[in-house]
Amino acid sequence: MTPQELRAFCLSFNAAEEDFPFSPEISVFKVRGKLFALSFLDARPLKANLKCDPEEAIRLRREHEGLIVPGWHMNKRHWNTVTVDGDLPDRLVRELIEDSYDLVVAGLPRADRLRLDRP
């Protein structure tokens, strides 16, 4: 997955926005103001911080050692850093991004979730 593909996929979700609260180099992808992905798109290798169910995070780290690690500068229980342009299949990377988005949406107030469901 290229940086352009990563950005496009993150922005393809309903109400997803790109923001730069930390620095102009770090893309932060949010839904209703809540972070679901973070990446320095110019970095090589390309990596993204993604939210993950804690038990799933442990399994993924074990199965993809070195490519999925505890989230850099994040709560290590709930966030993984995923090497996006490495040996992981693009399909898996897309699933991890979508799971991160879904977890964040699930934690939004009911009114915000309902607004996301409207066309």
From TrEMBL:
* InterPro entries referenced in this protein's UniProt entry, alphabetically: YjbR, YjbR-like_sf, YjbR/MT2646/Rv2570-like
Tell me the Gene3D superfamilies matching this sequence: 3.90.1150.30
GO molecular function annotation: DNA binding
Checking SUPFAM superfamilies in the record gives:
YjbR-like (SSF142906)
One Pfam family recorded for the sequence: YjbR
The UniProt keywords, alphabetically, are: DNA-binding
> Coiled-coil region(s) at which residues?
none
Q: By its UniProt entry, which PANTHER family does this protein fall under?
A: CYTOPLASMIC PROTEIN, CYTOPLASMIC PROTEIN-RELATED
Protein name according to UniProt: MmcQ/YjbR family DNA-binding protein
Q: Which organism is it from?
A: Streptomyces iakyrus
